[in-house]
Every structure is written in C-alpha cells, then in structure tokens.
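A reminder from the course coordinator: this example appears on the midterm review sheet, so study it carefully.

Given structure:
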C-alpha cells in the first residue's frame, strides 16, 4: 500500500500506569485487589457545561443513556478520595518526577506551572464524573528508524475505575484501579505506516520503562491510534494492549476508510474500539475541548530549578542493552532479554569460572526448552544451583541443561551423571579409534567419538583433542 499517496496520517497515544501509590491519596497502585468490597455506593452522572459553556458531545452522548453506576471500594486500595467524599491530597511527587524524567528523555519543553484540570468523563468510570489530568510537557521528539517523530504532549493523569459487570440498567465498577497514576504520551501525526506505528509504540514503552517505575503486566499499558487518509476526518481507535496488533488494526481501518471513500460516504471524526481479529466498531463521538475545566482543589505546582536539579535522568534500557551486548559479547536478542533480568549480572559475578555467554544461553534458552519439551517450569533458583556446581567443577558445563531440567522435574541431582567426559577419557578413546580407522579424518573420528559417548560429549572439547591427535 502506498501510504504517502493516501495522505496517511497517524499518531499514537500511549498510556502507562506507574507503580507508585495513587496520584492524589496514599492508597497503593493495586489494580487487582482480591479483597471483598467493604463499601458500595450507587450514583447517576450527568453532563455539565465545561469552561467554554458548552456540553461536551461525548459526555452528552453517555448521559442520555441514563445508567446507574455502582462503585465497590475495598479497605486497602481505596479511601474517601476515590469516592469523591474528600478533597485530593497533594500530588504524588514520585509520579510527578517520573513524568518529568520521561519528558526530558523525549526532549520536551516542560510546562513551568503545572495545573491539574478536571476532564468530564461520564461513562461512569469516575464516581466524581471527572478525571484529573495535567499537561506536563510539549514539543518533544523521539528518533525512530524512519526518522524523527514529534511528541505533542505528555500528561499525568488518574487511571479510571475498572468495569467489572454490565447489565441493562448500569455498570458496576471497582475502585482499586481508580486514581493510579497514568502517563499519557501523544505523538504528532507523522507516523509513516502501520509498522512504523508499532516501532513508535515500542520506543515510547522502552523510554517509560527505563524510569523503573512503570507498572508491568496485563492492562498496565494501552495504546490509542489516531488515523486519517485523504484529508478526511480522523478516527481514533481505542483499546490496544498488544503492540503486535497495531499494524493489523491500522491496515484494516485504512481499508475500511478507503471503501467508505469509494462509496462517497461521509463521516465525522469519532472514536472506535478495536475488536479481536483486527476490526473496529463505533464507540462514541470525538470528545472536544468542552470537557475540561480547572481542578481548584489541587494547587498549581511550580517546576523550578531546585526541583529540576534534584531529578536525575535514568539510563535508557536501549543503551543498557548495547552495553551488555558489547561487554559480554552476547547476541543482540539475548542482551534485549537479559537487560531486564538481574540474575544475569549477578550470576556472572558470582560464578566467575562459567563463561558469561554460557550463563546467558542457559537463562534465555533452558526455561523455554524445558517448558516446551518437558512441560516443567525452570526457576532462577534451579539455574543458580546448577551454575554453582559448574563453578565448583562438580559438573561439566555442557551438562547444565540436563541438570537444570532434572532439578525442575523435582529429581535429586546425582553429580556423577553430569560429570561430562574428561580430556583423558577422550584421548584414550581417540587412540582406540585411530587404531581401527585406516584413513582417519576429523569428521570420521568425531563421528566415532559421538557414537561412543552419546550426548555427554562437549563438541568443542572433543574437536580440539581430535585436531591435536591428527596433527
Ligand atoms: Zn485512596
């Protein structure tokens, strides 16, 4: 597809939860509180005029559904702030400094007076009918393989409550997730094609993760995609959790828009949600500026030199990965995985007689293989125990996999079984083979050795000894 010819325009909005406590109270960032609800309230929400004295279209659309909302709170993950029965406390300073770090890593201009706003949200996901959000920075850039992409804005906001049940009269929400700090990053519309959108989302994710306090796991990240073609109104697609789905959904949406354009259909800008399989469906009208008004319960925050001087920039995961790759001469895909596994450097330091490359290979490959072939789960403790034995010389380094898998299967290690083969035993065997073969070659002797020792032979060790014998 010629995306340039289609006047393809595409921008992303990436939302990522932070693992600090909540943004305006001391409740933890606990989005799946297993505890039973300790307090329940029921509310109806209606649309009010925003700062521009107009009703927001999206808010009005939701209000006309006249739903009843039920909110479940639990003792440990929600307090009066979530129920909107008590004013917000001071803004979470860790969340704020993280937002500033991210802005600096993306070369943004920081806003020097941060003002939280109330954004009208009346789908029920906020008991107060609004979500607090503040613009932190604007006009940044990130460098991708297809050129620079602009960062239009970085906001710090409150996560919405989690929908747990829907019926014909209304919706039940849980308040554990409400108020968890959320970083929202919006790019400009210069993304060049569907694959590029995925790269941009990955890059933004990596930068946020580099701060060390991005929440991990299901639901911790969401991407919205804005797309338009042929100068037509833009479509926003919500609800991607998986990066890998981005190219497919955009490709399908572009085909849908092209089809509409061919049939001379007209459409207004609106929000759609992504469905399994890559299709999209109408969600609601596009919200406008009418839904914002200042939050007067939260003081304006000055971003002064003192605050900025106290913030240190974290090293990017991409830079750490390159370093790791070079320092230990690792394949790039190993480095990408191991940069997020503290066990690697810790094992390399502790078990200095085992080659880092061997440790890397064990950490990356053995758990995968054990799961696939033997249906057992290898833990880092299994690996640690075996590496220790290799380090002490109790078992051969080419028997690591067997030993780790046996441990994971719950077997007791019989050290003799993992001894491997000594130089002497191989040399003796080579002598015997040479006495039998008329025209020995490296290949023929290796073949005979392999047969003799079955899987226990270290190929490198054996070929070194065979080469010596044939010299
Ligand atoms: Zn709270």
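Designed residues:
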């Amino acid at each position: 597809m010629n995306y340039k010819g289609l006047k393809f325009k595409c921008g992303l909005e990436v939302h990522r939860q932070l693992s600090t406590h909540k943004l305006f109270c001391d409740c933890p960032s606990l989005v799946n509180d297993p505890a039973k609800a300790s307090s329940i309230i029921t509310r109806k929400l209606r649309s009010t005029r925003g700062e521009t004295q107009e009703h927001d279209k999206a808010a009005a659309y939701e209000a006309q559904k006249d739903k009843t909302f039920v909110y479940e709170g639990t003792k440990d993950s929600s307090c009066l702030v979530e129920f909107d029965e008590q004013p917000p406390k001071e803004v979470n300073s860790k969340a704020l400094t993280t937002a500033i770090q991210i802005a600096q890593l993306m070369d943004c201009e920081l806003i020097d007076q941060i003002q939280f706003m109330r954004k009208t949200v009346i789908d029920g996901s906020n008991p107060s009918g609004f979500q607090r959000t503040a613009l932190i920075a604007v006009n940044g850039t990130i460098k991708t393989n297809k050129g620079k992409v602009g960062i239009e804005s970085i906001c710090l906001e409150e996560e919405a409550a989690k929908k747990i049940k829907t019926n014909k009269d209304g919706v039940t929400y849980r308040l554990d997730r409400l108020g968890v700090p959320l970083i929202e990053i919006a790019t400009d519309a210069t993304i060049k094609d569907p694959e590029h959108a995925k790269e941009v989302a990955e890059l933004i994710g990596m930068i946020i993760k580099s701060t060390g306090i991005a929440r991990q796991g299901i639901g911790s990240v969401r991407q919205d995609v804005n797309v338009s073609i042929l100068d037509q109104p833009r479509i926003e697609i919500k609800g991607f959790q998986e990066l890998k789905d981005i190219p497919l959904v955009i490709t399908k949406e572009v085909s849908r828009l092209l089809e509409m354009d061919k049939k001379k259909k007209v459409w207004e800008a609106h929000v759609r949600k992504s469905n399994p399989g890559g299709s999209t469906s109408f969600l609601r009208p596009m919200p406008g500026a009418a839904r914002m008004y200042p939050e007067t319960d939260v003081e304006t925050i000055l971003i002064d030199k003192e605050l900025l001087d106290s913030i240190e920039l974290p090293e990017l995961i991409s830079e750490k990965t390159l370093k790791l790759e070079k320092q230990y001469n690792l394949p790039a895909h190993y480095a990408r995985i191991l940069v997020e596994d503290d066990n690697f450097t810790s094992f390399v330091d502790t078990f200095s007689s085992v080659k880092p490359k061997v440790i890397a290979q064990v950490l990356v490959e053995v758990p995968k293989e054990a799961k696939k072939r033997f249906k057992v789960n290898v833990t880092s403790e299994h690996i640690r125990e075996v590496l220790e034995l290799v380090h002490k010389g109790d078992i051969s380094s080419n028997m690591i996999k067997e030993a780790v898998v046996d441990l994971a299967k719950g077997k007791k290690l019989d050290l003799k079984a993992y001894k491997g083969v000594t130089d002497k035993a191989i040399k003796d065997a080579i002598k015997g083979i040479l006495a039998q073969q008329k025209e020995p070659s490296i290949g023929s002797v290796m073949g005979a050795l392999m047969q003799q020792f079955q899987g226990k032979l270290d190929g490198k060790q054996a070929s070194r000894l065979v080469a010596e014998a044939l010299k």
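The mean pLDDT is 87. Residues 9-309 form one domain.
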